Amino acid sequence: MKKLIALSLATLSFSALAATQADLILKGLVAPILDISIVHETVAGNLDLSQSASNVKVATLTEKSNYHSGYKIKAKSNNSGKLVNTVDANSFVNYSLTYGGSAVALNSSPTQIYSTSNLKGTFTKELRISYNAPSNLSAGSHEDTVQFTIEAN
């Protein structure tokens, strides 16, 4: 009889500790996306510098972001907006570049050219070049590299 009472008390104590509710906590994660890429037009590597050009499409820039605070785009030009001859630095063509229709500051240090405070998704912008052809260019390749970066706000 003592064993039966002890077993009844043990069962009663265990039942008193059993929960009547349980929570399942679910969490998910979305990896951050912050990406920039350029698709060059054929003409970008074969500009005719003997003739002036106006608003020629040279590339399409694609931006991807899922940051709720948005992002900014910066640009920098290795030659500060000049296509410089690879063997004669005195032979160059000043040029201007637009990004989605807006002028790009072609400085040797990164300069912000675009910012958005809440834009998420994938967006494309056209890059277009304009220049006046000087008459005294040296023969050979004239080059510049413009680097674009994307940063989260």
Q: What would your notes on this structure say?
A:
The chain is mainly beta. It contains one helix and ten strands, in the order αββββββββββ. The chain has one helix at about 1-15; strands at about 35-40, 55-65, 70-75, 80-85, 90-100, 100-105, 110-115, 120-130, 140-145, 145-150. The longest helix is centred in the N-terminal third of the chain and has 16 residues, at about 1-15. The protein is rod-shaped and about 95 Å long. The relative contact order is 0.25.
Characteristic terms for this protein:
153 residues, mainly beta, 1 helix, 10% helix
Strand content: 35-45%
Ranges with pLDDT <50 over ≥5 residues? none
Helix/strand class: mainly beta
| Helical content class | 10-25%
What are the secondary-structure elements, in order, as H or E?
Answer: HEEEEEEEEEE
The CA-CA distance between the termini, in Å, is: 75 Å
Q: Count of helical segments?
A: 1
The whole-angstrom Rg is: 31 Å
**Broad shape:** rod-shaped
The largest pleated sheet is described as:
7 strands, antiparallel
Task: Tell how many strands the DSSP assignment holds.
Answer: 10
Name the average pLDDT. 91
